[in-house]
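JOB MANIFEST
job_type = single_chain_structure
chain_count = 1
residues = 132
[input]
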Amino acid sequence: VAVQQHGHALEYAADELKCDHEIVQIAVQQDGCSLQFAANALKSDRELVSVAVQQHGRALEYAADELKSDREIVTVAVHQDGNALKDAADELKCDRELVSVAVQQHGHALEYAADELKCDHEIVQIAVQQDG
């Protein structure tokens, strides 16, 4: 299967295969960002999105909005790539613990935090220590 070698091959698959849970799961295991080529219904599938963000945190960008509000999914994403905070729901961007994880992983993720956390001494300190 081409998507086992190159997850982005999903882009060129027939529409009915972009709806196939098994095919999409294989693709996102290889490249989380191939979630962007999945059928919209699968972008709401918590299991698939979880696999995708574990592989590539920025795959959160392609998840359905309701999963961008899912604290567990977003936590997995920012652990993998702190910049995934960019695509989290606004209410999670003011979650101190979640933002702390994001800036520990990637200091520049502070850019996506809620304004009140950009003034938080400890959060900013973690961010600058991470990025120098």
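[summary]
Residues 42 and 70 are 16 Å apart (CA to CA).
The two ends are 43 Å apart (CA to CA).
exit_status = 0
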